[in-house]
Specification:
Its EC number is 2.7.2.1. By secondary structure, the chain is an alpha/beta fold. Helix 3 runs antiparallel to helix 4 and helix 11 packs across helix 12. It is globular and about 60 Å long. It starts with a helix and ends with a helix. Bound molecules: adenosine-5'-diphosphate (ADP).
Length: 404
Amino acid sequence: MSASSSAGGAVLVLNAGSSSLKYQLVHPETEEVSAEGIAERIGDHDSSITHTQGGKEVVETRAMPDHLAAVEFMMGLFAEGGIDLSAAGLTAVGHRVVHGGRTFFHPTRITAEVISEIDRISTLAPLHNPANLVGIEAARELLPEVPSVAVFDTAFFHGLPDSAATYAIDRGVADLHAIRRYGFHGTSHQYVSEQAAVFLGRDLADINQIVLHLGNGASASAIAGGQPIDTTMGMTPLEGLVMGTRSGDIDPGIVLHLNRVAHLSVDQIDTLLNKQSGLKGLCGENDFRAITEKMATGDASARKAYDVYIHRLRRYLGAYMIELGRVDAITFTAGVGENAVSVRADALAGLETYGIRIDPQRNEIRAKHARQISADDSTIDVLVVPTNEELAIARQSAAVVAGS
Ligand code: ADP
């Protein structure tokens, strides 16, 4: 069977993150992945792409100044590997889109009107929606015959209880400007919580979970019986946990101070909080591997960044344990959550009183599959579950096409 014919019925999923572009050609039913890859450190001089097709992995380092360059590079690698995407009989191109605003609560077939609405909403997700749109436009140009579908990161959290979704500000102003907590990384929180239930052999409806999605962007969610009841990101992906380059929670008065006293413009404050804050703002690095290396040399700023990161994580863990009342599982996922052994250990250190006991040996194991890292006598199961937003997006995209 040729590479192209094996791609028949598959969905090309494009997942453009803040500094990465993940892609996968995946069959939504068989879960067969014909090709996949990731472009990393987009925007840096040492950006690279890792592309796997037909069991062969190609790693190429090339300056990719933006996501458009990454998409173009990716398409060339598909062709070199023998997959002509336009002749492959794809079911859909499924795009991860970060912010659906008040408009989009379900996966949506992409039209020119949908593109302009996503563009309009970009002000709410300045690091992400523009990158998502680059992927959408490039794919529509390359594959005009294949339906494109947008799957929104905000959708899973649409039903958050009002008490969790509402900011305590003037209602008239909030309603006029669509100011509420939307939540993000929803595709991942939904997928990982479902997989955690499968791993535990329990009915999703019967368990309470905390999911910690720790990537370059980071968010936590409290999920009761499959329904999210709270999450750390809010109107924009800026709220909540300390992230690679984003501050997470700060006193809103700081924004006023930066404008009135430091005389920074709104755009400068936007850049400061979205691109120059978080771990990067604290120690100059946003990649956990670099931070870990610096900490090992005794670097004080890296240590401080790490401590602030862990402190914020534990604050939300505590909050969500109280909100849920009973917690059955705590699950780590995404780049940091799946790989950073010390983050998992430190986030949950000293919580034996609350029924949480990590098994240090299990925590050290590196694997690509779902696993338990808690000790057998831990009341709460602690898991590492690799996220697979691509598969989730492929399934949702195929369902939209089948239903239209
Ligand atoms: P995003 O999709 O938000 O860009 P990812 O989920 O791909 O983010 O995660 C990226 C983060 O994961 C980076 O900060 C990176 O340092 C971290 N990461 C990846 N691999 C490892 C590792 N082996 N050890 C520690 N951190 C890692």
